[in-house]
Amino acid sequence: SASSAILFQNWRRRKAIARIPPRPIEIRSDEIVDGVIGLIGNTPLLRINSLSDALGVEILGKAEYLNPGGSVKDRVALKIIEDAEAQGLLHPHTGSVLFEGTVGSTGISLATVGKAKGYECCIIMPDDVAIEKVQVLEKLGAKVERVRPASIVDEKQNLARKRALEFGNTALVDPQKSDPELVVSTKAEPSEVGHETNSILSNNIIKLPEILRPALENKPRGFFADQFENESNFYAHYKGTGPEIFRQTSGNLDAFVSGAGTGGTIAGTGMFLKKALPDLRIVLSDPEGSGLYNKVKFNVMFDLKESEGTKRRHQVDTVVEGIGINRITQNFALGVDVIDDAYRISDEEAVAMSRYLVIHDGLYLGSSSACNLVACVRLAKTLSKGSRIATILCDSGSRHQSKFWSDNYLTQNNISIDPSIIDRLLES
Ligand code: PMP
């Protein structure tokens, strides 16, 4: 896309000029934290001792599960809401409602940050997602609506967008599908804005003109968070996760590994790190069934429609929740040019890694974190001793008890549970 090209050009230019100095990061541990939002970000970078010692390569995990909402998505929820507030699209304590389609983590983060800031939350999710995520959402006061699992063409996103429009008729829209006369453009004069009550305002691309702001303040709004396309997601990582990892490693880092759901993490963190450290390798860890592996390796999308004669599914059918997708989102597109390589990780390997880490490190992680660490081990095998790899520990095992961490569920689905797979991988 155009913005991806611009970021890439900027990166090239910067690369030619100089390394960017690390941006100063607040250290909060000695201070009183300003509410729950003050707990978001600045997570520790954890040396995974078992893997690092066995490999002779340091494997460092960014402990995102320590965020107050329990995952890396707290950063994204906060940035999406703050950017919308700065654009005048959201006002706290007005009865405004955040809408999102999600497999859970982003919903829990939106509900958490929403409550802390004064918003209600409505989450649309597939009905095969681990039940504990729904329970947490409901305890957080969010309304949950379920849709069919492994939905075709992002059913949950479309419904979230529709619900936001129904609620306030002021949130986002797909500018391509909407009547051009009703679309507010950044360049438009207020007189060109059209029918105010029907105005379709993109929270992404289009800024609310100053003149409309007072009229819409204090009114309840429906706001579609749109984590897949909303670039605030990318910037949460470009301005947060990336600089933090740079500072925590003093720039002494050889590779960064991440999975991609929306793509915000790998694109935002990857773009920052690549600009700061041009020789650093950015590597995608992709579960089986996801099309991103082929996109990175061969620049083609694997299309299930052609291969299986079924309707193209955007959601990947795997026990690993939160990563893997069969389309290129805007957030992924922003960083695709800096991704150097990809590994395809099986359910068995991710399950084995999660059990291995509990046995050897006392580390109880979720499925996408386990996937990332399998990719780290594979990558470490190709690097010289003493190298350093950072990855993301997205959430903890407590979000995955009824599926990924349920031996019964795995056995019923013919997924073997064998931590020695990791011993063999380390020895190979
Ligand atoms: N891990 C988990 C548990 C997630 O929920 C997600 C996001 N859906 C990811 C990883 C992937 O992060 P991103 O959306 O930034 O690609």
Automatic annotation (TrEMBL):
Q: What are the record's GO terms for cellular component?
A: mitochondrial outer membrane
Q: Where is the signal peptide?
A: none
Superkingdom field: Eukaryota
Q: What is this protein called?
A: cysteine synthase
Q: Localized where?
A: Mitochondrion outer membrane
Q: What is its EC number?
A: 2.5.1.47
Tell me the lineage of the source organism: Eukaryota, Fungi, Dikarya, Basidiomycota, Agaricomycotina
Key words, A-Z: Amino-acid biosynthesis, Cysteine biosynthesis, Membrane, Mitochondrion, Mitochondrion outer membrane, Pyridoxal phosphate, Transferase, Transmembrane, Transmembrane helix
Q: Which cofactor does it need?
A: pyridoxal 5'-phosphate
Gene3D superfamilies in the cross-refs: 3.40.50.1100
Asked if Transferase is a keyword of the record, the answer is yes
Q: Name one GO biological process term.
A: cysteine biosynthetic process from serine
